[in-house]
Structure formats: structure tokens, C-alpha cells
Amino acid sequence: MSLHNRLTLSIMLVSIAVFAAASWLIFEFTRERIHAHQRDRVELIAEILENGLRTLMIEGRGKEFQRFIESLVAEDIEVVRIFSENGTILNSSVPGEAGRRVPGRYLKAYSSGPGTSLYSVEQRDGREVYSHIVSIKNELLCQKCHGSRDTIRGVLDVELSGRASGQKVAAAARRILLVAAAATALLFVCVRWLTGRLVQRPVDAALEKLRQSPAGNALPHQPAGQDELALLSAGIDALDAELLKAREDLSHCTIDKNLHVERMASIGELAAAVAHGIKNPLAGISGALQVLAEDFPADSPRKEIAGEVLKEIGRLDTAVKDLLFFARPPELSLIPADVRAIIEKVRNTLDPEAARQNVKITSASDNISDIMVDPEQMEKALTNIVAHCIQSMDRGGELAVAARRGGTEGSVEITVSDTGGRVPEEKLGDVFKPFFSTKHSGTGLGLAISRNIIESHKGTVIVESREGRGRAFRIVLGRG
Known about the structure:
This protein is of the alpha+beta class. It has helices at residues 3-58, 65-72, 108-112, 140-146, 163-212, 228-252, 257-295, 301-327, 339-356, 375-392, 425-428, 446-456; strands at residues 77-83, 89-92, 117-124, 127-137, 152-161, 335-337, 359-365, 371-373, 397-405, 412-418, 460-466, 470-477. The chain has three domains: 3-169, Beta-Lactamase (2-Layer Sandwich), CATH 3.30.450.290; 213-327; 335-477, Heat Shock Protein 90, CATH 3.30.565.
């Protein structure tokens, strides 16, 4: 699946989940409002009937109550009835129901005491029925005719059909689904357009530059199950391999040195142009994935996938930066610098990594504050060498960095020695070659970049393998 499709699918899956949750909450809120309205209505009808019955009784027209409840029956009122303590129906809006008995659950109002009301919602024949049962107190005025023996004269039962409310709930659900579907479709169009313009187009442009480079013939087709990021990584590896091949050819060529130098310069410019073109798409992809990953739940497998992709993007970004620095090193900015401060800065930077490798870094330097160097580039050169030594000590050990005045006036010698494994003599000359590495991590350009920086300062760097003691890198910088 292409990167464009993967990003679109991931964003849409998250969006659909968010829309579904929001739609469900809105639907539940609407349904609760409709149910609350029905409850208020059935309670209001019960209150009107109770007040009407009380008025008729006071006026001595109790026999007219049957006609009164029949006049209030509307389309959505299922039944209005009054029943006695033993459950016998005294009055009912349903013809022929008087004299029958109500189910036992209706008699709870008696056991709950006078003035008690019971509200319930039942399912009958596929529709909801709202029921409100209220006990009628045997008030003082009622006792003139009915005596004072009973505290409750009867129970009023009002049942309201939920057919209309069910239709409202269904209509609300249809509207919510329609709005959610329209919003999802609009979001899909926007996401598809944005990911195509901000991600896919820059990636395609970078791939096209790779195909037009001298390494284009070595660029593989897109592997099955992988996206353009894998192709970019393979392209950079192919470009790195081509650059290495060109440098090796140049080093072994003695007949037409100028031609090889020109070719290397062209390849370096092309590598820098391609790497520069890759940086912006990588930044866009990384930013898009970071925003996307924030929306994933912490336990979502998609968050882990996004993290792995971001990790690979970081590796690509490091490779691109090293490639740019190697192909087009910046100009030196020489100033009087303190070598001890540079070494301490390198040490502070790499101390956490050294601790993870169980490596102890020590430093000892003379007071050298007048050497003419570019502090930033010299720091980078030392950082690459020290990091290489740390990575070579799989079982831990000690690493010493020392600086002292050289044998000639104005010269400085910096030594980086470790207790790691011994490098065979035949491979000592290869450690500064581009892409020489015994590790799966890194770009293999660190030591090559360090040598270029040191040589641009008119200095030299050599590596020595010490039997039983590891290796030592000696850096000699000339006059300021």
C-alpha cells in the first residue's frame, strides 16, 4: 500500500471512530431529551386528571368523572383509569374495562403510602409506553362522603403511547447518520487532497530526482508491502553506494585524476541536491505522522506502527544530513578556541550514550585556548570519533580523551584511545573510508567526515591498533 493510501486510510479510520462516538453521544442526548419530554407530559396529564377529579368530587359531580376522562383521551394516550385498593377498576377511558382487575404491580402505589407516584417505561407490541401511577389521598373534603377510615381513596393510572416519540428518535438518528456520512465524505476528499499535495507530491519529486541520478539504475522497484519510505531509503543506500564507488575509483585512478575529480564533484553536487530535496519531504512526512500519532489511543497498534515509521524517518534524516555534510562541507570559520572546552562539550554530549554502553569517559587537557579552529566543526569531528569508539566497546570499558601541546610551536595533539577490540592491521586504512562500519546503526560516514574536517584545518589524523589495549586516534593540528 502506498504512503498516500496508508496515510489517508489511517486518518479516515481515526476520523470515523471519532464521528461514530460523537454521533452516538448526540443520539443518546436527543433520545434522553425526548424521553424526558414524554415523562413531563404524562406527569402533567396525571396532575390535570387528579385536579379535575378533586374538583368534581368537591362539587358533588363525581359521576361525571367518566365523561371527563373520556374527553381528555387523545391519539397518543393509551388509557386513563382509576382503580381501588384491591385492584378493581372503577373508571377507565377504555370501554368495558370498569370492573376488571389490574395486574399486581399496579398496586405498589398503595403500599408506598398516600401521594406516592410511580413512573415506568414498558415495551408493548414494539413501542414504548410511558406509565404514571399516583395514589389519591383521602383528603378532608373527601372524608365527608367516603369517611375517614382509609388514607387512600384510589389510584390514578395514566399511560401514554411512545409511538410519536419513537418516530422522533428514528428521525433524529437518520439526521445524525446523514450529517456524519456527509462530514466523512467531505473529510475524505480534504484528507486525500492534502496528503497528495503535502506528502505524496514531494515524495514523488524526491524519487524522480533519485531515478535521474547516477544511482537511478540501481534504484529497486517498490517492494511488495512497503511504501515510498522504503523506496527512499533504498534510493539513498544506492546513492551512497554510488558515491562510495566513485570515491574508490578516484582514489585508485592515477592516469586521469582531473577527470575523476570532476566526476566526484558532480556526484557530490547531485548527492547534495538530492539529499536537500529529500529533507523537506521527510520533514513533512514526520510532521504529518506526529500529528496523526497524537490521535491514536495509547494501546492502539497503529500508534506503535507510527512510532516505528517516525524512527525510520529519523534514521533517514540523519543519513541525509551526513550525506549533505560529506558531499558539501561548510566553509571554515576559524577563531581562537579553547580545546579543553571543546573536549568537555563532546564528553557531556556523549556521556549518556557511554553510560548505556557501560563505558567510562575521562579527559585530561593542557590549557590550550589559542588554537585557530572552527569550534563547531571540530566538535563534530571529535564527536564522531568518540561515538565510534563507544560503539566499538560492546562489553564496556574506558575511553580517554587527552590534548597537549605538540612538538612544534603552535601545534596541538589530541588523542582518543579506547579499550575496545583490536582492529586487524589490514583494515586500519579502511576506517576513514565512507560507509566503512561494523555496526548496523549509523551511516558509515562519521569517520570520513571527521577526517575531512581535520584535513580542512591542515591537520592529520591516524589510527593505531594497540595489542590488548584497543585503538588510539591521534589528531595533530598545525599552526594557528
